[in-house]
Design goal:
The complex is a heterodimer. Chain A is mainly alpha-helical. Chain A has helices spanning 2-11, 36-44, 51-70, 73-89, 100-118, 141-158, 162-173, 178-185, 189-211. By secondary structure, chain B is of the alpha+beta class. The chains are: A mainly alpha, B alpha+beta.
């Protein structure tokens, strides 16, 4: 099993760490265009179509976040759609549109937690996560190797308790600072750091078990 | 599961150069980095059209709607009415507000139905230019329910006919400052901001009043 680890090492990139607020305040501009605070003002001023700008800006990350939290793309799409509609209806309640990104993740995180609660478990069922593909001579080694690795990582993530899974994903997949994570989850920064640290330990133990 | 070496945690938190790590920790760093990279793949789906269709079908009231129009729409909304009981007020505001609370503020309101009551909102905001109430009962819409301070003593008040049950609400002072009611019966997490709370209003139907 040394080959997979070698290839992972070759692909490894530095983890995202952004512990300071984005420059120019906290307004997050993912696409070119007006800052969030201006788009929010347009929507609240009656231009409902402008909400589409915010959807295009944040939908990909929200879908990815929800998919990692729920382990099921269909459930994640439902959670994000419900969250965005709810965000639109309550946009006037967003007290700091400059932190819209955190606010949207907060709403989506709440929807994901509700979804998990309905399943009577905070954990993803491993049956929701595809098992690693078995080698097949009809496929290229590279494709199979990548597929196996992704499935292994997804299963290791799914095995984490929801709070640690959320902390790891927000930190290292969505690239949030701890301050943004605090706004997105309502948890305190020391608590979030502890969750991230514990998630790393669990993930590393699971992955090393496989690739050792 | 054993604790990760603190140096590795620091590198993963961006507080230490991963190049300075010993070889075994560098491998662990690379393993976790690669795992995170794999999880960054974007789902090949979009809910944008679905969300926009929902929004176009049921557009939410936004701030562009005038206060009078909002108030008319809200009052015509077929809501039930409730009476709000706030015994804490009378204790907390004893002397200063006691007289004010006894004023007949309900004049001019529609007669509450069986499952409705009259909610009395009172707040002490000296120097405020405007105070309004937004809440779950009016879709958190600005401009729908303004408080008045006709005698300029800093005590703002308004009555409203509301459905029986629980309602979350906030005061909006001077059009920009959202504040919970310091004398609310209860508070609940607003589900949006970090640790922010909404005030909770519990309204009893008029038919249940003694």
């Amino acid at each position: 099993m040394s080959a997979p680890r070698r290839s992972w090492l070759l692909r490894g990139k530095p983890l995202e760490n952004r512990d300071e607020a984005p420059p120019g305040g906290v307004t997050e501009v993912v696409n070119d265009g007006a800052p969030d605070i201006e788009v929010v003002a347009r929507v609240l001023g009656g231009d409902g179509e402008a909400f589409g700008i915010l959807i295009r800006r944040y939908e990909p990350g929200l879908l990815r976040f929800a998919t990692r939290m729920l382990g099921n793309p269909d459930a994640a799409a439902d959670a994000v759609a419900e969250s965005l509609v709810r965000a639109y209806r309550h946009l006037a309640q967003c007290r700091d549109p400059g932190r819209l990104r955190s606010w949207l993740y907060r709403i989506t995180g709440n929807r994901c937690r509700s979804h998990l609660a309905r399943r009577h478990s905070n954990d993803i069922s491993l049956s929701d996560v595809p098992a690693p593909a078995l080698a097949d001579s009809s496929d290229t080694w590279a494709v199979l190797e990548r597929g196996e690795q992704v499935a292994l990582v997804e299963r290791a993530l799914a095995a984490l308790p929801a709070e640690k899974r959320e902390a790891f994903v927000l930190k290292h997949v969505e690239g949030m600072s701890y301050e943004e994570m605090a706004a997105a989850t309502g948890a305190r920064i020391p608590t979030l750091k502890m969750r991230v640290h514990r998630a790393r330990e669990a993930l590393l133990a699971a992955l090393e078990e496989v690739v050792r | 599961m054993s604790p990760i070496d603190q140096r590795l945690q620091e590198a993963l938190d961006g507080e230490r150069d991963p190049g300075d790590l010993p070889t075994d920790l560098r491998e662990s760093y690379a393993l976790l980095s690669a795992a995170a990279q794999m999880l960054k793949a974007m789902p090949p789906v979009s809910v944008a059209s679905r969300v926009m269709a929902e929004i176009r079908q049921n557009p939410a009231p936004v701030q562009s709607e005038g206060p009078a129009r909002r108030l008319i729409r809200w009052l015509r909304g077929g809501r039930a009415v409730t009476v709000r009981l706030r015994p804490v007020w009378t204790l907390a505001l004893a002397a200063g507000l006691a007289t004010v609370l006894l004023l007949p503020w309900s004049d001019g309101l529609p007669t509450p139905g069986v499952a409705q009551g009259i909610a009395k909102f009172v707040g002490h905001f000296p120097g405020a230019r405007s105070v309004e109430v937004v809440g779950s009962f009016n879709d958190w819409s600005r401009g729908a329910l303004a408080l008045n301070d006709d005698d300029h003593d800093g005590i703002w008040h308004a009555d409203a006919v509301l459905p029986a049950g629980q309602h979350e609400y906030m005061f909006v002072v001077d059009g920009e400052r959202w504040v919970p009611d310091p004398l609310a019966d209860r508070y609940v997490d607003d589900g949006f901001g970090a640790g922010q709370q909404n005030s909770l209003l519990i309204v009893r139907p008029v038919s249940a009043q003694p």
